Amino acid sequence: MRLNRLIDKLAILLLCMMSLAMSDSFIEPVIVAITAVTASAAAQLLTGKAAASVIIAACSLACGVYPLFLCMIPLMLYDALWEKKWWLVLPAAAVLRNIGDMRIMQIVMTLAAIAVTVIIYHRVSGLEQTVTKLTLLRDEIAGKNRQLGEQNLRLAQAQDNEIHLATLKERNRIAREIHDNVGHMLTRSLLQSGALIVINKDEQLREPLESLKSTLDSAMTSIRESVHDLHDDSIDLKKVIEDSISSVDSRFTVMLDCDVSEYMAGNVKLCMIGVVKEGLSNAVKHSTGDKISIIVREHPAFYQLMLEDNGSCSEIKESGIGLKNMRDRVEALKGRISFTPSAEGFKIFVSIPKQ
Description:
It contains nine helices and five strands; from the N terminus they run H-H-H-H-H-H-H-E-H-E-E-H-E-E. The longest helix is centred in the middle third of the chain and has 96 residues, at 104-199. Helix content is 66%, strand content 11%.
C-alpha cells in the first residue's frame, strides 16, 4: 500500500505544481515545492506518530505567512487524511487575509486538487479495506483448511486403529479356532497312532505307523508354532497396558507414553506386559504416592521400559516373588532390569536387546 500511496502523491503533486507554475516568480515556487515535498515525505515516514501531525499543522500555518503555500495544501491534506486528522489543514484558512496575493486560476486549481485528493484518498482507503478484509478471509480459510486437515488426519488415524484392532481380533480368533479344532484333532490322531503302534503285531506295519506318528508330530509342532505366532501378533501392547491402567486404584493418575512399532516380537510384548502389570500391582499395594508414569520406547538396538511412581521408598526387598518374576522374565530375553528406590519414588527400568 505504501507504493500506491506514493503514486497517488505524485499525481497530487503534479496538480499542485501546475498551480504553482502560474506564479510570476521562479524562486519562491521552487522553495515552496521543495519544502512541501520534504514535509510530506517526513509525514509519511512518521505515520501514526505525533511528529507527523505537527509537520502537517505547521505547513498549514505557513499559508498565513506565504499564501503560495496554499497551492501545496492538497498534498498535506492527503497526509492528514491518512492520519485520520483532516482538521490538521484547517490552519491554512489563515491565507484568507492575504488571498489577494494569489491568482484566481491558482485558487481554482487548488480547490480542484483538493477535490481530487479527497476522491483519491477514498478510493485508495476503500481498496486498502477490501484488501484487509480479503487477507483476513484468506487467513480464516487457511485456518479452517488446516483444522479440517487435522480433523481428517485424526479420523484416518482412528480408522487405522480400528482396522488394526479388528485385524488383531481376527488373528486371535483364527489362532483360537486352530488351537481348539485342528490342534485337538491332531492330538487325538497322535494318541491313536501311538496306540496302534503299541498293539500292532505285524512288523511290516511298524515302520509306516511310526512314520505316520512322526508326520503327525511335525504337523502338531508346526500348528503350535503357527498358533503361537498368530497369538503373539494379535497382542496390541499399548491396548493391553491401557486396559491394565484402567484397573488401577482411582487415587493414582497414570501417564502412558508408548512409542513402539507393530513388529515387536511376541515374547518381548509378553515380558513388557508382565513387568507393567506387576509394577502397577506393587504400586497400588505399597506406594504412598498418587502418580505413576509408564514410558515404553523402541530404539534401533533395544526396547526400553520405565515405570515410576512418586511415593517415598527408602529400600526394597528383592526376595519378593513379584520382583523375582520380573527379573526372570527380563533375563530370559537377555535383558537387564533395575529397581531404584528413593525419597522421590520407586523406579523400574528395563532394557531388552533386539534379536
